């Protein structure tokens, strides 16, 4: 026997239509995920902050980035203490900071000059260009990091390179008479901080023109090496969440400029 299907009641048809409309909306406008939010943020930076640098390479890129990142607020050396308590906060313990070379999590207020304290490490050693701690490169927190007092003294003003003997109290860091090798987790951080300084300080603001070179034992000259090693470290240790957060905090709360090599590590090769 042939069975005839009766039309569905009008209320049922309306409910089905409403459900179909909701499905279409969900299909065309998915909820934002952390990944898409991150991509949107990077795109926004390129469309705004870095727009004058896009499409350039070599000296033209370096010049464009210098102009962009030279627009910044500046801190006094005493203000650096409080800034580092925020920029280098331990993501697992908001009462502590992470020490750059030792990798130790330590109370934010254990700072000073005594053994066991942390102090302000100039990753670009301030004697390389003789800029001291006056406002400018000496207080630029893009290259200032909390460091164990003793390890900071061992690093001194040495250039960066591979090899040497392991540093007591800072596992996986090595040093010899003329160079220092940081632990693997911050090798890229060190490279990008050094290269930021080389772009930011070009000798046009009363301070020395800072440049990387492929030597060690640079003494008081405004150079730091070894550039070929720093480039390798930038490739081997890409920016992680800690470094990216640090860059954002400096931009939002303190200097209002960015380290472009954290946002675009490929620009290292494009310039050098």
Counting helices, strands and paired strands, the structural category is alpha+beta
Distance between the first and last residues' Cα: 84 Å
Largest sheet: 4 strands, mixed
How many individual helices? 10
Radius of gyration: 25 Å
Low-confidence stretches are 1-40
Q: Give the averaged pLDDT, no decimals.
A: 88
Question: How many structural domains does the protein architecture include?
Answer: 1
Structure summary, number of beta strands: 11
Q: Which term fits the overall shape? A: globular
Provide an overview of this structure.
This protein has one domain (68-271). With 272 residues, it is an alpha+beta fold. Mean pLDDT is 88; it is low at 1-40. Strand 7 (165-167) and strand 8 (170-175) form a beta hairpin. Helix 6 (187-200) crosses helix 7. The chain is globular, with a radius of gyration of 25 Å. The strands form four sheets. The chain has a four-stranded mixed beta sheet, with helices on one face. The protein contains ten helices and eleven strands.
SSE inventory with pairings:
Blueprint lengths: L9 H19 L5 H14 L10 H12 L7 H11 L1 E2 L2 E6 L6 E3 L10 E5 L21 E5 H7 L3 E2 L4 E3 L2 E6 L3 E3 L5 H14 L10 E2 L10 E2 L2 H10 L4 H14 L5 H4 L3 H5 L1
Helix pairs in contact: 6-7
């Amino acid at each position: 026997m042939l069975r005839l299907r009766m039309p569905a009641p009008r209320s049922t048809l309306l409910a089905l239509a409403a459900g179909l409309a909701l499905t279409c909306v969900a299909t065309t406008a998915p909820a934002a995920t952390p990944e898409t939010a991150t991509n949107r943020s990077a795109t926004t930076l390129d469309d705004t902050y870095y727009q004058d640098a896009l499409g350039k390479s070599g000296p033209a890129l370096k010049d464009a980035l210098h102009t962009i990142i030279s627009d910044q607020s500046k801190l006094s050396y005493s203000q650096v203490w409080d800034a580092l308590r925020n920029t280098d906060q331990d993501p697992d313990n908001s009462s502590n900071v992470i020490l750059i070379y030792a990798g130790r999590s330590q109370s934010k207020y254990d700072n000073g000059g005594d053994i066991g304290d942390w102090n302000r490490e100039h990753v670009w050693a301030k004697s390389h260009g003789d800029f001291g701690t006056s406002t400018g490169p000496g207080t630029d927190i893009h290259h200032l990091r909390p460091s164990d007092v003793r390890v900071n003294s061992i690093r001194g003003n040495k250039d960066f390179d591979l090899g040497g003997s392991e540093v007591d109290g800072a596992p996986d860091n090595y040093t010899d008479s003329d160079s220092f090798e940081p632990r693997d987790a911050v090798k890229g951080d060190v490279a990008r901080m050094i290269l930021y300084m080389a772009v930011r300080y070009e000798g046009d603001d009363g301070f020395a023109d800072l440049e990387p070179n492929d030597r060690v034992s640079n003494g008081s000259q405004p150079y730091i090496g070894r550039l070929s090693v720093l480039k390798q470290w930038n490739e081997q240790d890409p920016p992680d969440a800690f470094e990216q957060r640090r860059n954002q905090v400096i931009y939002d709360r303190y200097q209002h400029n960015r380290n472009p090599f954290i946002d675009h590590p490929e620009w290292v090769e494009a310039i050098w």
